Each structure stands twice: as structure tokens, then as C-alpha cells.
């Protein structure tokens, strides 16, 4: 007979470890602060060690608590993943795809044509998240992430490389200085995410100062920056992945300027198991084929 701690106590401990607070853990689990505190206290008594250092408004894991937190997080993640797969059934046709939002909006959506979906012959359940998963994918079968993510139950495979460059709407280019003139970049508003890293690299390569830019428009997602550029709101830093459709359609034009490379790329997370269903393999192979086609175009 397995002698394991109470599951509710482990869930309370896991939430408190991730949140750094009994109160926030209680909000996540939908229980009272007292319930979380009681579960953790009982768990500490059962294990015979202190798992947290208590402070007025937060808690901090002890050394033993940190080690145990990793074990519990990995175990709960594996249980969550397998539970989701069993609920759907190995032979069922639904495939859950977890996708980073910029890639989903600007790259994946144009590929989901009637013909492609008919050929796949699966029920796609696409979950979009603003940031890469770092620990838990829930019941996802596959994931596409920006940057490598280490998630229990999955292996990480390189998926798409990208090259960044400045872009603008054709109508905006027709006004004022030609884009070959560095003054063109100073005459228009710069669109970017909260970090200004890419524009700084671009301006440095062009011999310009960001202090002389006409203005700035900030968004918290790259696909919103691209949408704003397509509407003529200013210049954006795009790339050959999320701007592919807009460039082909003529909604955006690549401007003269440096090619901006990065050590990061898009990755695919694939179940680290031999029992991958046929529908999941079909979607995975289709996604890999689309990525290869993109690189060859």
C-alpha cells in the first residue's frame, strides 16, 4: 500500500510554493486562507520538516521545501497531462494544441484552410497563451512556444527560426523621404513592444539615435504591433514568420535596413512517450511540414 500525503495538502503546498503566498494560493484553489495554512501545516507535521518560512505577507520555501516543491510540481504536472489524455481517450480525434499567441495569430491561422483541416481529419482544440509555458501544459497534446520550454512529459524540438527587419504599410512609404534615406526612419512613429531592444539595434546599425525618433507606440504583443503597422500607424519590427502573410499579400513592405537575428527561436513540445495517438502524430507531422515549407519559401 502506498503511503502518500493527502492530495489536497499537496495541491495547497504546490500552489503556495508557486505563488509565494497562502492568500494567493487560496484564491487560485478557490478555498480559504485558513484551509491552505491548515493543509500545509498538516503536511509539515506528517513529513517532520518545515517547508516554508512564514513572513507577514508572504512565505518562502526552505531548502527541504524547494526540493519537495519540484517533486510535487513534476508529479502533479504528469498526473494532469495523463488525466486529460485519458479523458479524451487515446483513439479519439481531438488534438489539443497549445500555441504562443503571436505565432497563432500571424502564422498558424492562415494555414488553417478548409483543405488543410479536411486533410488532417482531426478535431483541433487550439489554446492560445501570451507567454511560453514554463512548467504545466494541462491536457495539451502538442505546444508551439517562443523559446525553449522544459515541461514535464514533453520533449523540446526546434521548430521555426526567424530573422527580424523593419516593415511598414505601402501607403506610409509613399509619404515623405524614400525609405532608402535614413531620415525616413526619423520621420515616422516607431511601433514596438515594451522593450525597445530591436529598434535600438536597428537604429544603431543605421547610425541613428533613438532620441531623435518622431514618436513611439507601445503594445504588449508582437501581432498587435504588426496590425498597427498594417494600418499605417508607424514603422514596426517584423520578421519572416509573423509577417509572412502580410508581406506576401502586399499589406506590409520590408524596409531597407539590417537583418536582425536572435539566439531564440520557436520550438515544438512533443509528448515524451511512445503512446502518442495517431491524430497527434498527424498534426505534429503536418506542423513540421509547414515549418519546412516556410523555411524553403
UniProtKB/TrEMBL annotation:
Q: Where is the HTH lysR-type domain?
A: 5-62
What InterPro entries does the annotation carry?
LysR-type_TF_proteobact-type, LysR_HTH_N, LysR_subst-bd, WH-like_DNA-bd_sf, WH_DNA-bd_sf
Instruction: State the UniProt keywords alphabetically.
Output: DNA-binding, Transcription, Transcription regulation
What are the recorded Gene Ontology BP terms?
DNA-templated transcription
User: What GO molecular function terms would the record report?
Assistant: DNA-binding transcription factor activity; sequence-specific DNA binding
What family does this belong to? Belongs to the LysR transcriptional regulatory family.
Q: Specify the protein name.
A: LysR family transcriptional regulator
Amino acid at each position: 500500500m502506498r503511503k502518500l500525503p493527502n492530495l489536497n495538502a499537496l495541491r495547497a503546498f504546490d500552489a503556495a510554493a508557486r505563488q509565494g503566498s497562502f492568500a494567493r494560493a487560496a484564491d487560485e484553489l478557490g478555498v480559504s486562507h485558513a484551509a491552505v495554512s491548515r493543509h500545509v501545516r498538516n503536511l509539515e507535521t506528517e513529513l517532520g520538516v518545515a517547508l516554508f518560512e512564514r513572513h507577514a505577507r508572504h512565505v518562502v520555501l526552505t531548502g527541504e521545501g524547494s526540493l519537495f516543491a519540484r517533486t510535487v510540481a513534476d508529479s502533479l504536472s504528469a498526473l494532469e497531462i495523463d488525466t486529460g489524455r485519458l479523458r479524451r481517450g487515446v483513439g479519439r480525434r481531438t488534438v489539443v494544441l497549445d500555441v504562443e499567441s503571436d505565432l497563432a495569430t500571424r502564422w498558424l491561422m492562415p494555414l488553417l484552410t478548409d483543405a488543410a483541416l479536411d486533410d488532417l481529419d482531426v478535431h483541433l482544440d487550439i489554446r492560445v497563451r501570451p507567454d511560453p509555458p514554463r512548467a504545466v501544459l494541462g491536457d495539451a497534446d502538442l505546444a508551439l512556444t517562443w523559446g525553449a520550454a522544459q515541461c514535464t512529459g514533453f520533449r523540446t524540438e526546434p521548430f521555426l527560426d526567424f530573422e527580424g527587419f523593419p516593415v511598414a504599410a505601402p501607403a506610409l512609404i509613399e509619404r515623405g523621404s524614400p525609405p532608402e534615406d535614413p531620415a525616413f526612419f526619423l520621420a515616422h512613429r516607431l511601433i514596438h513592444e515594451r522593450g525597445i531592444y530591436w529598434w535600438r539595434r536597428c537604429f544603431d546599425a543605421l547610425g541613428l539615435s533613438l532620441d531623435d525618433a518622431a514618436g513611439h507606440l507601445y503594445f504588449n504583443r508582437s501581432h498587435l504591433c504588426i496590425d498597427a503597422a498594417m494600418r499605417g500607424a508607424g514603422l514596426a519590427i517584423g520578421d519572416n514568420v509573423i509577417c509572412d502573410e502580410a508581406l506576401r499579400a502586399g499589406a506590409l513592405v520590408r524596409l531597407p535596413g539590417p537583418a536582425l537575428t536572435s539566439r531564440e527561436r520557436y520550438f515544438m513540445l512533443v509528448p515524451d512517450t511512445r503512446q502518442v495517438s495517431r491524430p497527434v502524430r498527424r498534426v505534429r507531422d503536418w506542423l513540421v511540414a509547414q515549418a519546412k515549407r516556410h523555411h524553403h519559401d
